[in-house]
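[SOLVED] Need 3D model of a three-part complex

Original post:
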Amino acid sequence: MSRKPCCVGEALKKGAWTTEEDKKLISYIHEHGEGGWRDIPQKAGLKRCGKSCRLRWTNYLKPEVKRGEFSSEEEQIIIMLHASRGNKWSVIARHLPRRTDNEIKNYWNTHLKKRLIEQGIDPVTHKPLASNTNPTVPENLHSLDASSSDKQYSRSSSMPSMSRPPSSGLNTVSETTSKDGTPVHEDGSLTPKKRLKKSCSTSRLLNKVAAKATSMKEVLSASMEGSLSANTSFSNGFFEQVRNEEDNSNASLINTIVEFDPFLQTTFYPEHEMNTTSDLGIDQDCFSHFLENFGRDDHNEEHNMNHNYGHDLLMSDVSQEVSSTSVDDQDNPIEGWSNYLLDHADFIYDTDSDSLGNHFI
DNA sequence: AACAGTCTCAACCGCCTCGAG
DNA sequence: TCTCGAGGCGGTTGAGACTGT
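Solution:
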């Protein structure tokens, strides 16, 4: 009622933010905190819409925002969650610490979607494209391992950020490391070994995760529709089998995946109400639970080198203490998940093993 | 060297939800 | 209970950098 409209009747600036504008915004928010976006432009001396300030801060300047190349672990999570939730970028972002929905959305549209298509997987349904007769066979990953995927990484790792303001020596992200902190040549490209390892690992995981995500989506759909029955591929005693094998690595993986997605808990643990604080001790931020279970990597110096623009900007010119949520305080929490999945996900394609593996295909 | 095409991603747009008044 | 602004969200755009010819 009494509130004044936002951004009305003012000659507001649009387009890319300048370094000076960033400094003003960072300085103001650091001093007064977030919130009250409507008033921030005026108080901070910016000719910007409050909404624009909020977006600039949350997507780019916020100290805890992680910027740079997505790891294969993060890619797995994005694909899996996209399969079950669709384009719910904010939901996906909640499972990827320090990543913004906008960044995930961009990464999906420019990288993951294309790669899934190349593999014959529909990025919308996460099911094999009609033209691909055998899309889930891992061998098909050879077609993108060193070509498309490698090309993407090579290109993106060497490409400067487009709309990033003139660095003025402030941004150290891509000077000695790739976007995800991987060591790079002086020209910004990944070393051949790193590139090969990364692309192969990513492609292998993409194949596995895409197939797994498809199954998960089917189960989720069936669950949501209340139609999960003996006809569902996960059924036929599968839940019981998994749950009775607590010390089995397969069961452990399933549990981890289920824990990862609270919605799937009702599928695997139908006697439980869908509850954000289930008996598993999992909530919407269940990824942190995973961290507790499987430990944090303490060899993430590379990731710790992943400073960010806002942080550097603030530290460079504004003599104020940086927020306590410093990048250096947080190592990459995804690594453990990746290693665990890599170590245990092979059963998904292991058709020679027991029935557990086949349920996922 | 110049140009066109491609790619990336920050920023914008418009709609929706929530909650203050 | 209703109104409407703030904030959140997903889709889209376009500037700028890279690549190929």
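Edit: The two ends of chain A are 56 Å apart (CA to CA).
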